[in-house]
Amino acid sequence: MQNIRPATTNDASRIAEILVFTKRLHYRSIFNNDQYSFGEMQVLPLAQDYLQHPEQLKRIWVYDDGFVKGMIFVDGKEVRELYIDSFFQKQGIGRKLLEFAIKNFDVQYLWVLEKNVGAIKFYQNCGFQLTKETMPEEGSDEINIKMIR
User: Binning pLDDT at 50, 70 and 90, where does residue 1 land?
Assistant: First the structure.
């Protein structure tokens, strides 16, 4: 996949921006915690963390067709994070990143919030299936469900 490449420290602020704004957009209605969403979760500290700990970027791949539009964090056989800038969603970028991770890392599973219906549908359309295995989302009452291919 020609537009997918390893993340570098030059991508730190863009990755942080995508993560923060996409999480706010999709998770605010689930967690109902504005103090976290708009107080604790900020772009600058996250970008600085990537710059201070660049080893974190070694498992992140970005979709870049002139600028970074999305990212995937792969940890072994697991997709830990997959986020697309909201301006570029519904353009096949998430599917391309997921297919890349499956092909190159033999990704087998991921965890998704049970209330994140849109993400569940997306992953099902990409060949993942819900399991009965669950785990609590750290620091909340929400539940994650494991999905496998």
Answer: low
